[in-house]
Every structure is written in structure tokens, then in C-alpha cells.
Amino acid sequence: MFDLPKLPFGLDDLEPFMSRKTLEFHHGKHHQAYVTNLNNLIKDTELANADLETLIKETAGKADKAGIFNNAAQVWNHTFFWNGLKPAGGGTLPDGAFKDAILRVFKDEGKFKDELKAAAVSQFGSGWAWVVKENDDVKIIKTSNADTPIAHGLKPLLTIDVWEHAYYLDYQNKRPDYVQTVIDKLIDWHFAASNF
Fold first, then answer.
1. Which residue range is the domain that position 111 belongs to?
2. Which residues have a Cβ under 8 Å from the Cβ of 154 and sit 6 or more positions away?
3. Cα-Cα-Cα-Cα dihedral of 100, 104, 107, 108, to 10°?
4. What span, in angstroms and rounded, lies between the C-alpha atoms of 111 and 168?
5. H/E stretch holding 144
6. R_g of the chain computed on alpha carbons
7. Torsion, CA 114, CA 7, CA 47, CA 162, rounded to 10
8. Neighbour tally for 96: CB within 10 Å
9. For 101-136, what is each residue's pLDDT tens digit?
10. CB 42 within 8 A of CB 50
11. Is this structure's pTM higher than 0.90?
């Protein structure tokens, strides 16, 4: 059975860019609901003792297991999202293999960030924008609803949650403002680099 993972920062630590109220609802209510639903769905099944990644891979694309997939992926995606944020985040990319790959593929750090924002803003409806590793290259992709790169054999490096519950209390319908703020003020580029 799964527990709601603790946030890697305090409820007030991302102010004023992400409010305590947003975290109380997003983490404490939405993320918690995915954990609770997942536990109820796998209880007394052959998947009851599987880890999240195994659950996701075993249920991806199976209509009769869609509920398990959606909740397992949302637990994983949210936990990954929280770990990719930090107070006083943003800034320039750290030197190293991750930055080298970004510059090789996108030629310019600003262009990379612009493309990440464009993916997040243009995701229709609920979903996620991702920076992923494929072989030795970096790609920006987006997924709908609960879908996650690990269901497609890609290695996630970081993500931006663009479900409305991620931003509506702080930014209302201004998704572009929320995404720009996450990129400029909250993303932990060292987390992304360490995943590379």
C-alpha cells in the first residue's frame, strides 16, 4: 500500500509563486486522492505489492486496468513534479552533461526554455510537459491526463504539471503566467541534471 509522499519543502516555501493554499489542495487533496484510489484499486489483487513503476508498466494501454494506471501514474507524476521544484529555483542550467545535451539539441538555453513553455501552454486540457532523455539526447514532450513517459520507455528528467488544479487558485486561467513562473522561479535544474 502507498502513502502520500511528503513534500520536499514546506507549504509556505514556494510563496509567492505557488501558494500554501494551492499546495494544500494540490498535494493534500488531489495527490492524496490518487494515493487513496490506487490503494483501493489494488487491494487484494495480484498487483497489491508492486511498486509504482511496475504498476504503470503492467497496466499501460490495458482498458480493464485503466483505473489502476491512471491513479498509479498520477501518484508517480505528482511525486516527480514536487521533487523537481525548489524555493529560489529557476536560473541558469548547471554545467555538465545535461546542459551539454540541451545545447547540442536546442542550440541555446533560452530556446530550450521557450520550447518547454510552449509545450506546457499548448497541452490541450489536462496533462504534463516533460523533459525526457532518449538515448543520449534530450527531448521535450507532452502527455495528456495521467500519461507518463515511463509508460513509453523514456526517462523523465523533469515535468511541469498543467492540470488546472496546479495553478487555478494562484493564476486563474493564466496558464502561460504559471508556466513561465515555474520555469523562472521554481524548477530545480540540478534535479533534472541529476536524472540525466
1. 97-195
2. 130, 132, 133, 134, 139, 141
3. -20
4. 27
5. strand 137-144
6. 16
7. -30
8. 12
9. 999 999 999 999 999 999 999 999 999 999 999 998
10. yes
11. yes
